[in-house]
Amino acid sequence: MAWDRNQMAARAANELQDGYYVNLGIGIPTLVANNIPSGIEVTLQSENGMLGIGPFPLEGEEDADLINAGKQTISELPMSAYFDSAASFAMIRGGHIDLTVLGAMEVAQNGDIANWMIPGKMIKGMGGAMDLVAGVKKIIVVMDHCAKDGSPKFIPSCTLPLTGKNVVDLIITDLCVFHRSNHESSFKLIELAQGVSADDVKAKTTADYVVEL
After folding, report:
1. Which of 15, 41, 47, 184 does the annotation list as catalytic?
2. Number of domains the chain is built from
């Protein structure tokens, strides 16, 4: 048994702290918006120019003019603010965003991340991932533990073009959670999904890590 996408997002949401300014990446990370723990107030930021993002709208209540960076329809809040991309990236590059939750195609055991392109495949653009991993205080990656072909995604070193070096603080997969503090040399396996064993994780991981369960 493993966590589903919503459970992975809920686990990431447990890392939020009251008063945080948070950026959510495309894919599973967007689900964090619907899993913010009660009693915690955070302000969600989207690099396409919105501060104060509400949960996904109910069917029939969508506004086509309100979208996040992944072009999904979102809702606004009474305190929502809108601005251009220059102001948005000034927030990110200036270190004003406390935490970002991103997807990834690969994460290396030293904290490198590759999540912006696969050579030879058409892409729309670089997006804001490189700015986020360089300017945000805490980087959380939420991803499937293995690729569709079964190959591990937490590996000794990235094979795809890098988004950032030595930047990832926490990895949440459908199997487990890896953590490291202050860019330590090794990630630590600190949590398992229900029904998953440490041996299950080891069999599907090629990166080196320390077990602390």
Report:
1. 47
2. 1
